[in-house]
Specification:
The complex is a heterodimer. Chain A is an all-alpha fold. Chain A has helices at residues 5-13, 20-39, 42-58, 69-87, 102-105, 109-122, 126-137, 142-149, 153-178. The chains are: A mainly alpha, B alpha+beta. Chains A and B meet through helix 2, helix 3, helix 6, helix 7 and helix 9 of A and helix 1, helix 3 and helix 4 of B.
């Protein structure tokens, strides 16, 4: 039986730490995806998600509406990502140093397929990445996105539309460069 | 084949429709438009494909991600119950209260300190002796010792009229024949020990003379026995000038009838009350001190006979002696110079 977010949150509040596990399993993948999209580093994204979960657990008693746990949790992660982006120094990768991750040299087919898309998406400006991650990965409404970004619903609507147009251009360029479009859906090349 | 761009006015609605943010009437109008616009239909299809690409890509990246055990191992044993008194809430609500309370206290303290530092000394006459009990008294002797010495007849050998407007009174007293004035002690005419020939011996040493009662009173009198009254008068004038004092009258010889009888020269000046004690010390080095008197404003309001007793019982704090007027910031000093004894 699937328990709602509200029930799980109340259980955790009453001392049932194990109830926090289902909440994590429910959201962790999308949270990692959203963090990855925002910060552009998969390992950092995982660390940020773990920090966000710990902080959420410690602050759970301050959540006034347990039914809105998802948005609240993603809000914590979002601010952690922004904080990370502010303090992050530009990464410098030296091809001569031999310190590159081997995955970049010999990527698996799965990673190669992802790398065809994710770098494109990460080329988008941060305002567009914010709304795309919030809408496609976190499944937030325009109202919730507007509240998080401190702007109006109409602004979010316009920003979403422009982000999609930019994403369309990038994918079209990638398709033209590779000569074939990237397969959409769950069929990933292996 | 070049793709026809979608209609500008419909592209936002297409995007919102994909996101499920379009109202029902808008959905109907968009459907009507899409039925007749090939470009907008293609654009909508492209948006849907991109969305699928987007989600699929990140799903692929995050497949196999499991942070549950890692996070659960980092969680504290018990879920903190912060409630309304949570640290964050306290931080934002209580901190301003602390801040303003501390700031208010600091402002009050600074005001008090500045007020004390800048208020001129206008202590009423009745409060002068009580101020002597302050730790910052100039004399290192204990207060009780000083008060006791002050009460000794040798120390305060004469009653000095130090009522407000003393200058005129002092002048009149000095000019009054037969004593009973400034130099006239409680003992009667010419009661000054030094004037009787034995006073020099009875004059207490400088260290025990109660001139160091602080703050200095507004009237003092010094009688010196010097080899040359005229030369001493000149040196005294210089000393007064060094102490930023103002000479009121410098007389040599002293008109007849002035007190003490053997005084050959007299110097009347006004100096700062704070400088009076030091000036008296310096003047005392010009010759032999026959007598030195510092009139306390408190004494002016009391009978001479009860001075000593009342000196030991200062007025309670905050209670002024009746009729006492605020002391002037300057003190009047009269120095008598008498020649050597034959």
């Amino acid at each position: 039986m699937n328990r709602s977010d509200e029930e799980l949150v109340e259980a955790v509040r009453h001392g049932d730490q194990e109830s926090f596990g289902p909440l994590m399993e429910r959201y962790q993948r999308r949270m990692v995806a959203a963090a990855y999209h925002l910060v552009g580093n998969f390992h950092e994204a995982q660390d940020l998600v773990q920090e966000a979960f710990v902080e959420a657990y410690c602050s759970l008693s301050r959540l006034r509406e347990p039914a809105r746990f998802k948005g609240w949790l993603h809000g914590i992660l979002y601010h952690k990502c922004l904080k990370y982006l502010r303090r992050r120094k530009p990464a410098v990768i030296s091809w001569e140093s031999g310190e590159l991750d081997e995955r970049l040299i010999v990527p698996s087919p799965e990673e190669q397929w992802t790398r065809d898309l994710v770098p494109l998406m990460n080329q988008l400006p941060l305002p567009y990445r914010e709304v795309l991650a919030a809408k496609y990965l976190e499944d937030l409404s325009y109202d919730e996105i507007a509240a998080r970004l401190g702007t109006t619903v109409n602004n979010v609507r316009v920003r979403c539309c422009r982000a999609k147009q930019e994403l369309r251009k990038l994918i079209a360029q990638a398709e033209a460069a590779s000569g074939s479009s990237v397969q959409a859906g769950g069929e990933r090349p292996r | 084949m070049k793709q026809i761009p979608p209609c500008e006015e419909w592209i936002e609605k297409i995007s919102a429709d994909i996101d499920g943010e379009l109202s029902l009437p808008e959905c109907k109008r968009l459907a009507d438009h899409l039925a007749v616009c090939e470009a907008c239909r293609l654009a909508r299809q492209a948006f849907l494909q991109d969305r699928a690409h987007f989600v699929a890509a990140f799903d692929a990246v995050t497949q196999g991600v499991d942070l549950t055990s890692s996070v659960l191992s980092r969680l504290p044993r018990s879920q903190p119950r912060t409630g309304l008194g949570s640290p964050r809430r306290g931080r934002f609500i209580l901190r301003p209260a602390w801040f303003w309370a501390g700031a208010g206290l600091a402002v009050v303290m600074v005001g008090v300190i500045l007020g004390k530092a800048w208020t001129p000394r206008k202590a009423p006459a009745g409060e002068s002796l009580r101020l002597a009990s302050a730790p910052a008294a100039m004399d290192s002797q204990p207060l009780r010792a000083r008060v006791q010495k002050a009460s000794e007849p040798e120390a305060f050998s004469g009653k000095m009229a130090t009522a407000p407007g003393f200058e005129d009174r002092a002048e009149s007293n000095m000019e009054a024949p037969g004593g009973g004035g400034m130099m006239g002690g409680p003992g009667g005419k010419g009661g000054e020990p030094g004037m009787e020939g034995t006073g020099v011996k009875k004059t207490p040493p400088m260290s025990s003379i109660p001139t160091s009662l602080s703050p200095p009173s507004d009237q003092a009198q010094l009688h010196l026995q010097v080899a040359s009254p005229q030369a001493a008068l000149i040196r005294a004038e210089r000393l007064v000038a060094e102490y930023q004092g103002a000479i009121i009258r410098s007389e040599f010889p002293v008109p007849g009838g002035a007190l003490p009888p053997k005084a050959a020269a007299r110097l009347t000046c006004r100096v700062s009350r704070d400088q009076l004690t030091l000036l008296l010390e310096d003047l005392g080095r010009l010759g032999k001190v026959v007598s030195r008197q510092v009139a306390h404003p408190l004494l002016a309001e009391r009978p001479a006979s009860s001075e000593s007793a009342k000196l030991e019982k200062p007025l309670p704090a905050g209670k002024k002696s009746p009729g006492a007027a605020p002391s002037p910031p300057l003190a009047t000093l009269t120095v008598f110079f008498s020649g050597p004894e034959p």
